[in-house]
Specification:
By secondary structure, the protein is mainly β. Helices cover 4% and strands 51% of the residues. It has 2 helices and 18 strands. The chain has helices at 232-238, 240-243; strands at residues 19-24, 30-37, 43-49, 52-60, 66-72, 75-83, 89-95, 98-106, 112-118, 121-129, 136-142, 145-153, 157-164, 167-176, 180-193, 203-217, 269-274, 288-291. A 16-stranded antiparallel sheet has the order 1-2-3-4-5-6-7-8-9-10-11-12-13-14-15-16. Strands 17-18 form a two-stranded antiparallel ribbon. The chain starts with 18 loop residues before the first strand and ends in a 6-residue tail after the last strand.
Length: 297
C-alpha cells in the first residue's frame, strides 16, 4: 500500500493553512464544528478536536472522490464510506486510514466483495458476487487473493475445492443440481502466450487445467449410517458426457480462470484509489481511486 493514503495534512506545510470557518478553542485551535478549504483545493466539513479532524466529517477531494465517516487525529477511523473517482465505493470499517475489519466494496460494474479486510486488502472470509451472472465465490482470502478452501457457486452447479494464489488448485469436485458430482483436480500447466510477431517475446504463464475423474451420486450423510452410495451407476451413465471430460478442460460455465474476482489498484484520493479492474479472470488485488493529501490544523 502507498503511504499517501491520507488526506491533506496541514502540519509542516508552512504558514498558510487554507481557509477555515468554524469553532475554535481558547488556544485558537480548530475545535468543534467547522468547514475548511485546504491549500490543495480539497474541502472538509465536519468535527475537529485540538486542530485535527476527529469525529464525523465529509472530506471532498478535488478529483471528485469523497469520504463520509469517522475520523481520529486526521485519519479515517471507525465506520465510513469512501467513494472513488470512478464511482466504485467501500462501505465499512477503517483503522489508521486503511480498510480494516468488516466492509463491502462495490465495483463500477456492480460486482460486490463483502467480508473481512486487513491493512487495506481483502483478508479472511469473503463473498464475491458477480452482478451480471449471479455467480459467487465464497471462501478465504489472504492478502487480497483467494487462498485455502472455497467454492464457486453457479446457477445450476458449484465447484468446491482449494485455491492457491487466486486460482483453483488440487483436488476438488463439481456438484450438479441434477443429482451427481464429478470429482477431479486442477493441475497447473505452463503455456506460452504472445510472441505473435518477431518483436514480441513469448511469455510462459501457469494456468489451472481441470482433469476430470469419476462421477458419483451426490452423497448425503445420515446419522448412524454410512454415507449413501446407491444410484452411483445411474449417475455415471446419465453424466457420460461429463465423465468423458477427462480432458483437462473444464466444461462450459465451470470456474477455471474466468470465474474469478476482478482486481483493482490501490490508492485513494489524489493517488487514484483502488478502482477494480475489469471482472476478467483471477481476483487479483483490488483498490481504486486516488488518496489525496491530508489536512490538519
Amino acid at each position: 500500500m502507498s503511504d499517501l493514503g491520507s488526506e491533506y495534512d496541514e502540519e509542516d506545510q508552512g504558514p498558510y493553512l487554507g481557509e477555515y470557518e468554524g469553532e475554535r478553542n481558547e488556544k485558537e485551535e480548530r475545535h468543534g464544528k467547522g468547514k475548511a478549504t485546504l491549500p490543495n483545493g480539497d474541502t472538509y466539513d465536519g468535527m475537529y478536536e485540538h486542530g485535527k479532524r476527529t469525529g464525523h466529517g465529509v472530506y471532498r477531494f478535488k478529483n471528485g472522490a469523497r469520504y463520509i465517516g469517522e475520523y481520529r487525529q486526521n485519519k479515517k477511523q471507525g465506520q465510513g464510506t469512501f467513494i472513488y473517482p470512478d464511482g466504485s465505493k467501500y462501505e465499512g470499517s477503517w483503522v489508521d486510514d486503511q480498510r480494516h475489519g468488516y466492509g463491502v466494496y462495490t465495483y463500477v460494474n456492480g460486482d460486490t466483495l463483502e467480508g473481512e479486510w486487513q491493512n487495506h486488502q481483502k483478508h479472511g472470509q469473503g463473498v464475491y458476487t458477480y452482478k451480471e451472472t449471479g455467480t459467487k465465490y465464497v471462501g478465504t482470502y489472504v492478502n487480497g487473493r483467494r487462498e485455502g478452501a472455497g467454492e464457486i457457486i453457479h446457477l445450476n452447479h458449484k465447484y468446491q475445492g482449494n485455491f492457491s494464489t487466486d486460482h483453483p488448485q488440487g483436488v476438488g469436485k463439481y456438484v450438479f443440481d441434477i443429482g451427481c458430482e464429478q470429482h477431479g483436480e486442477y493441475i497447473p500447466v505452463e503455456q506460452q502466450q504472445g510472441g505473435e510477431t518477431e518483436e514480441e517475446e513469448p511469455v510462459t504463464v501457469t494456468i489451472p487445467k481441470w482433469k476430470a475423474g469419476k462421477v458419483t451420486a451426490i452423497t448425503l450423510s445420515v446419522p448412524g449410517e454410512e454415507t449413501a452410495q446407491e444410484g452411483e451407476g445411474d449417475a455415471k451413465e446419465s453424466e457420460t458426457a461429463v465423465a468423458d471430460g477427462e480432458t483437462e478442460q473444464p466444461a462450459k460455465g465451470e470456474p477455471a480462470e474466468d470465474a474469478e474476482v476482478p482486481a483493482a489498484t490501490e490508492q485513494e484520493g489524489n493517488e487514484a484509489e483502488e478502482a477494480p479492474e475489469a471482472a476478467d479472470e483471477a481476483p487479483a488485488a483490488e483498490d481504486a481511486g486516488d488518496d489525496a493529501a491530508e489536512e490538519g490544523d
